[in-house]
């Protein structure tokens, strides 16, 4: 391929497919909080098993921490809070300068904590991380769902140009942030765990 042909391909990609060649690192997060009632009054282990098995039908990689159930059951459920494990360290500042989000949800007192990474689009510079926290309390269950999406784009490498072309047609994989959650919630409802959305961002 001569230089003129290479330039023509790059220029055509930029004009016709909307490619962006400025290197960019973007981080986007969202969350949803649900109240959940078990319509069949199953044991905590049974509810946890149903929830974990349901996640496995959607996620390709699931890391589960199952803690002791609370006793006695609290009047109010817990809630996640965001923490930066690197704090104000030099590594934290460097990551922030490069556009990476280091905040992760901390779920103190949760009965089940699940983390999952979706790396199917990592070749194209995209990575989605899912965090789920399940609390039991006096009146039922509480489910917190937090997702972070990281995307690197731009540049003139073959992968960068291919990614830009694909995304100009199909969009990026951040749409899965909500799609996966909706699929999980629908499956939980089908299994007798009645869910109600309490709050979310973006607001629904």
Termini gap: 50 Å
Mean of the pLDDT scores? 78
Number of strands: 8
Number of helices: 5
Helix content class: 25-40%
Radius of gyration: 21 Å
Number of domains: 1
By secondary-structure content and strand pairing, the structural class works out as alpha+beta
Task: Describe the 3D structure.
By secondary structure, the chain is α+β, with helices and mostly antiparallel strands. The chain has one domain. 31% of the residues lie in helices and 33% in strands. The strands form 2 sheets. The chain has a 6-stranded antiparallel beta sheet. A two-stranded antiparallel sheet has the order 3-4. The longest helix is centred in the C-terminal third of the chain and has 15 residues, at 176-190. Mean pLDDT is 78; it is low at 3-19.
Briefly, what is this?
The protein has 204 residues and is of the alpha+beta class. The chain has helices spanning 3-16, 44-56, 90-97, 158-170, 176-190, and strands at residues 24-38, 63-66, 81-83, 104-106, 112-118, 126-137, 140-153, 193-201.
Please describe the topology of this protein:
Elements: H1 3-16, E1 24-38, H2 44-56, E2 63-66, E3 81-83, H3 90-97, E4 104-106, E5 112-118, E6 126-137, E7 140-153, H4 158-170, H5 176-190, E8 193-201
Antiparallel strand pairs: 1-7, 1-8, 2-5, 3-4, 5-6, 6-7
Protein name: Lipoprotein
Name the features.
single chain, globular, Lipoprotein, two-stranded antiparallel ribbon, alpha+beta, about 200 residues, six-stranded antiparallel sheet
């Amino acid at each position: 391929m001569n230089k003129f042909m290479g330039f023509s391909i790059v220029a055509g990609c930029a004009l016709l497919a909307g490619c962006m060649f400025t290197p960019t690192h973007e981080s986007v997060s969202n969350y949803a909080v649900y109240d959940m009632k078990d319509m069949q009054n199953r044991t905590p282990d049974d509810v946890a098993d149903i929830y974990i098995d349901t996640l496995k039908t959607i996620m390709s990689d699931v890391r589960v921490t199952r803690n002791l159930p609370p006793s006695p059951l609290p009047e109010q459920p817990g809630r996640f809070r965001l923490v930066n494990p690197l704090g104000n360290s030099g590594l934290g500042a460097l990551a922030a300068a490069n556009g990476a989000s280091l905040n992760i949800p901390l779920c103190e007192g949760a009965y089940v904590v699940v983390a999952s990474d979706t790396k199917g689009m990592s070749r194209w510079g995209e990575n989605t991380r899912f965090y789920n926290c399940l609390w039991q309390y006096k009146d039922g269950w509480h489910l917190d769902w937090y997702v972070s999406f990281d995307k690197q784009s731009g540049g003139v490498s073959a992968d960068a140009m291919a990614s830009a072309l694909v995304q100009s047609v199909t969009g990026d994989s951040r749409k899965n942030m909500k799609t996966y959650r909706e699929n999980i919630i629908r499956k939980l409802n089908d299994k007798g765990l009645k869910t109600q959305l309490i709050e979310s961002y973006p607001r629904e």
